[in-house]
Design a protein that fits this description.
With about 180 residues, this protein is an alpha+beta fold. The protein is built from 4 helices and 10 strands. Among the domains are: about 25-105, Carboxypeptidase-like, regulatory domain (Immunoglobulin-like), CATH 2.60.40; about 130-175, no CATH class. Strands 1, 4, 7 and 8 form a 4-stranded mixed beta sheet that branches. The longest helix is centred in the N-terminal third of the chain and has 18 residues, at about 10-25. The mean pLDDT is about 80.
Length: about 180
């Protein structure tokens, strides 16, 4: 049996690994492109690009809206998403390098009306105070005045269920009661 030269064995291993690496590299392809706003073509930065079949987020678009993903040969579904835009799916067959641009459409959200109050809606049912009448300063400022001064007693007499006692008197009836019980 013939012995193998000690230099030949490492060279043989090196070439076999190199051939294996080259054959593996030929099965990898790159899909790249940019992500743009569908309305005005503006580049969308930091857009997320995911591969549906791998269940992972692969990359984000850079500050120019460009992305690049290297994958093995096969069929993939690329999903891109960006806040305020509708996500988009595109199927691609990777058997060569592919240039694929995404144009995303803005998401339209119809919001419900928001009403802000300082009282609960059921305050009139759960509260213990009944028959209260409020006099708002805006309401008081909108009323006509005599000689440039606001008169609180005259303004109160304009409220519902308030009846003045008579002309020249400062008293008034509340719900048809007596002037001394106000």
């Amino acid at each position: 049996m013939k012995s193998i030269n000690p230099i030949t064995l490492p060279v043989l291993v090196f070439f076999s690994l190199m051939v294996t690496g080259i054959s593996q590299a030929q099965n990898k392809f790159t899909v790249s492109g940019s992500v743009n706003d569908g309305n005005n073509g503006e580049k969308l930065i930091a857009t997320t690009i995911s591969i549906k079949e791998l269940h992972v987020t692969v990359t984000n678009a850079n500050e120019y809206g460009f992305y690049s993903i290297t994958l093995s040969r096969g069929k993939y579904t690329l999903i891109t998403s960006y806040t305020g835009y509708e996500p988009k799916e595109i199927k691609v067959v990777l058997n060569q390098n592919v240039r694929l641009n995404f144009n995303l459409d803005q998401k339209v959200n119809q919001l419900q009306e928001v009403v802000v109050t300082n009282e609960r809606r059921d305050a009139n049912v759960t509260g213990t105070q009944m028959g209260a009448q409020k006099l708002d300063m805006k309401q008081m400022n909108s009323l006509p005045v005599l000689f440039g001064e606001k008169n609180l007693l005259k303004t109160i007499q304009l409220l519902p269920h308030i009846v003045p006692v008579g002309e020249g008197s400062s008293g008034f009836y509340v719900r048809m009661g007596h002037p001394t019980r106000t």
